[in-house]
Amino acid sequence: MIEISHLTKQYGRTTVVDDVSFTARPGRVTGLLGPNGAGKSTTLRVLLGLTAATSGTATVDGRRYRDLAQPLRTVGALLDGAGAVPERRGVDHLRWVARTHRIPRRRVEEVLELVGLAGARTTRVRAYSLGMGQRLGIATALLGDPQVLVLDEPTNGLDPAGIRWVRTLVQDLAAQGRTVLVSSHQMAEVAEVADDLVIIDRGRVVRQGPLEDVVAGHGSLEEAFFAALGGLR
Ligand code: ADP
């Protein structure tokens, strides 16, 4: 389970995440929704130990990322694409990550199949399309077979078939009992996959709860979203 508690992040005098609290639970897809610049990535970066919180906490199974004994087997993450060296072949990138985290080599072949990159396994990462890069990033996130997944804008750069594939994958992962936190600025996409929603704007949570509760009385997620944002302005 993911727990964000009273998380605040300031850059200089600017507060980009402001007292954010929410929980993402096993067996459910939690959608972190907000306009560009709302603070979604910053929240996820703190959760993944890539930047320090100014105050508050972000934990996976009750521990901060840096205190996890086996981080890649505990939480898989997609942030800003795959983060692979462009000159590497896709398969070599995954083998390198597997080796450094003591993950069996055969798991590399499994995730390549799972994300549909088996045919492009020996292509160099620099020759990958944006969508293939996203698939490689998702493969990396899945490598340790973690119970918790954090995916920042996973459908960026994907074509309609790819978007559909991510949707099915995300729902399958939750159906297997995993905790899945997905950020997006695209309402339609979140409405399709999320069981629970956290809407953030200008660093603050403006609405959260099960998707049907958030939408109730508004007719659509889009109406609910703008009603939530309008409440602040
Ligand atoms: P989102 O993911 O919702 O689009 P971000 O978390 O990326 O939003 O950004 C939130 C705000 O924090 C933005 O205004 C962004 O410019 C600012 N920000 C992000 N990273 C930094 C940084 N390293 N230094 C200063 N400001 C930053």
Short précis:
The chain is of the alpha/beta class.
Element order: H for helix, E for strand: EEEHEHEHHHEHEHEEHH
Approximate strand percentage? 25-35%
| Shape call | globular
Number of strands: 9
Structural class, judged by helices and strands? alpha/beta
Low-pLDDT sequence parts: none
- Distance from first to last alpha carbon: 33 Å
Rg measurement, Å: 17 Å
Query: What is the residue-averaged pLDDT?
Result: 93
Bound molecules: adenosine-5'-diphosphate
Largest sheet: 6 strands, mixed
Number of helices: 9
Lateral strand order in the biggest sheet: 5-6-7-3-8-9
Helix content: 25-40%
Fold and architecture overview:
The chain is of the alpha/beta class. The protein is built from nine helices and nine strands. The strands form two sheets. Strands 5-6-7-3-8-9 form a six-stranded mixed beta sheet, sandwiched between helices. Strands 2-1-4 form a three-stranded antiparallel beta sheet, covered by helices on one side. Helix 3 crosses helix 4 and helix 4 (106-114) packs across helix 5. The longest helix is centred in the last third of the chain and has 16 residues, at 160-175. The protein is globular. The two termini are 33 Å apart. 42% of the residues are buried.
Which descriptors apply to this entry?
233 residues, binds adenosine-5'-diphosphate, globular, 9 helices, 36% helix
